[in-house]
Design goal:
Helix 6 packs across helix 8 and helix 7 packs across helix 8 (157-176). The chain is mainly alpha-helical. It folds into 2 domains: 3-89, Rna Polymerase Sigma Factor, Chain: A; 92-182, Winged helix-like DNA-binding domain superfamily/Winged helix DNA-binding domain (Arc Repressor Mutant, subunit A). The longest helix has 23 residues, at 19-41. It has helices at residues 3-15, 19-41, 44-60, 71-89, 115-126, 130-141, 146-153, 157-176.
Length: 182
Amino acid sequence: MDPRQKQDELILGCLNGDRRAQFEIYHLYSKAMYNICHRMMGNREEAEDVLQNAFVDIFSKIDTFRGEASLGAWIKRIVINSCLNQLKKRKFHFEEADSNLSDIPDLEYTQNFTEEDIVRIKKAIEILPSGYKTVFNLYLLEGYDHAEISEILGISEGASKSQYSRAKQKLHQILTQKSKAI
């Protein structure tokens, strides 16, 4: 059976209330979706809660899946929206762009990172202020552009660009500190 047929079969099973089909979809996507939740929420417990709530939404809204994108992309959008809804409850704020703001260019890294480097970078991202972290994750890790981020978060495109630039500056500052505390 080809992957498209398998996907259609699983969706049909979910529409008919088949718990095995739901479990299989959960099994196929939960790890990747948990990683998104953890990056956006910043802690395991909240990431798990958001993930579970997102899958409840996914299964209750499966009848709205139209197949215009892949099932994985549709699920990812619901998961990200669930994270954003939870983050909005935290009442973080976004700063508007400063006309004197100097942008740090995106650099091409050619070095291989060690596992220790990757852990340090992840920890540095986790301690970013929430507005910076949200835009950074959406732009760099989830692939949204600034126009999409501004629409999703209800901020200006300039604010999205500013938050991303400031996140890069802060990450650079955190990672280049002499203290290897993270």
